[in-house]
Amino acid sequence: MDGFLQIINDLQDVFSTVGVSPEIISLPQIVVVGSQSTGKSSVLESIVQKNFLPRGTGIVTRRPLIIQINQDSSAIEPWGSFLHCPDKKYTDFDKICDEIIRDTDRVCGSDKNINSEPITLKIHSADLPTLTLVDLPGITKNPVGDQPRDIEQQTTALVRKYIENPNCIILAVSPGNIDIANSESIKLAKEVDPEGNRTLAVITKVDLMEKSAENSRVLEGKVIPIKLGIVGVINRTQAQMDAKISIEECLEREAEYFKTHFNYMSTEMGTPYLTQRLCSVLMQHVKQCLPELIIRITEQKVIQQSILDSLGPRIEDESGALADLVMKFCREFRYNMDGRRSVQFGASERALSGGRHLFEVFDSAICQELDKISLPADIEEDIKHEIISAGGSKPALFTPNIVFDNLASRQLEHFTFPIKKSIKKCSETITEIISILSKKIFERFPVLKRETHQISLGLLLTKTQVVERFIDSYIQCELCYINTNHRLFIKNRPQLEKACSEDEKSKEEGGENSSTKKIKALLDLYIHIIRNQLMDVVPKTVICYMVLQFCDDLHKDLMKILYSSDRVDDLMKEDMLVEERREKALRMLDALERADAITSLLE
């Protein structure tokens, strides 16, 4: 039996030593819960058969005290040690009490505040069974003296933290001189364990209970049913402690009291029976929990290893690591643009390649915007005005080419704004891809992430300006030379003029109206041709300069600027949170590996 209980002690040590909360894997343990002055300390000292707990008024226990009792046949006399100073051996239990007070003050200060960081006390004795108990600060209803105003909330929250563990056995301590229905420990136990499957009740100060049938029913568990049972004990009085009456003698008096007043159930009352019952309950509970415990340890190992993998190893060669990260960033950007990688934008549910995101910009911001540009509704009035204006001082016999050129040029100017807008949208899309990748790849290194981001955006701005100048020049070329000799224009012109002529005959129109409609039709054709050319030229220019040339220059610029700054050490400084998370994960993984080795002994 001790082998199973020793496993829990060892696991408790493993997690406490590395500064990791044992609650993360829900270790089975017995937690002692009770209000102030219920006799918790007397119960624990009677089990250990030594005086070792601080006493006084107000909150005496201000930190969880994990008491590990180890049956040690080699122990000539009982002795203790603390996990925070394992090499120091205490045979004087008064000094153990002093160390509990000293270490409590070290963590909590000299005031009455409480703290959740536990103290672990290991007691070795040849006469005691292996058992672990967690003594918690007493639940305090009203602050006294310099106690914090929210002391009830603090103590209750700490108790809940422990007893909400589904693998915890709750030892609910209540004094016999109050109505058990008003017991704070029983009330809290029922809130987290409504069926009472993991609650064991202790009624202290039974000698102070009124001798009545009702109180006998309380001890029998008929008033408030507790599945693991109710055990009555008698506390040592202050007078007995002042008179130096030993714990052994007090236990003899306790046994005699129960034989005299509760003979019919005296074998299931008293501190020795309580100790035996606790060992039995914990033993059965550990056996039930062990398979699940092993699974949780394995699951946590996978989780912690995954965290470590995501954080990456410690950097040894900073210069080499910087070069690798820059290369990875440039490669990931290129792969994103050519479709080999995907990124998720904002609230989008789809993860698409950066190239695909850019294609959608081409389709929506370029093609659709350019498609919206058409001849204005009053174009025929403009045409008539232009024909009159071109005639000069006398009416023209034929419509001069300058009419078409002037009208076409004005229409082509309307393409400039949507094209500039679409180029900006392309730049924003690439900027977002850069931001996503830099955040992902340089997450551990905030300075490097910021510098890389700025350099990349500076290069992108340069390439964007190249595209804008190219497109400005292209549109200027279109404005300078209205190419009515364009192959598609020549091919489609006869058909349009024929259609206009047939329409004139059917409507018996001619003269100025005839010329106006023909010019309108030819303008529409020419704008359509130039629109299609721009739909082709703009994406090609964006890809050429803002993607391909950007990719070609990105690695070169990053390496040149980052290494020339002579700030490699500064650039490769990790985020403090990353370092802390790695250290925590390493400690946790170490604890879990050791826990795995311990539990494997019983498989």
Quaternary status: single chain
Q: Radius of gyration, Cα only, in angstroms?
A: 43 Å
Question: Main sheet?
Answer: 9 strands, mixed
Helix content: 55-70%
Parts with pLDDT < 50 across at least 5 consecutive residues: none
Itemize the secondary structure elements and their pairings.
Blueprint: H1 2-17, E1 29-33, H2 40-48, E2 65-71, E3 79-82, E4 85-90, H3 93-108, E5 119-125, E6 131-135, H4 151-163, E7 168-175, H5 184-192, E8 199-204, H6 213-219, E9 230-232, H7 238-242, H8 247-261, H9 271-311, H10 318-338, E10 343-344, E11 351-352, H11 354-371, H12 379-390, H13 401-412, H14 416-441, H15 446-480, H16 487-507, H17 512-564, H18 568-571, H19 576-600
Parallel strand pairs: 1-6, 1-7, 2-5, 7-8, 8-9
Antiparallel strand pairs: 2-6, 3-4, 3-5, 10-11
Helix pairs in contact: 1-9, 1-19, 9-19, 10-11, 10-14, 10-17, 11-14, 11-17, 12-13, 12-17, 13-15, 13-17, 14-15, 14-17, 15-17, 16-17
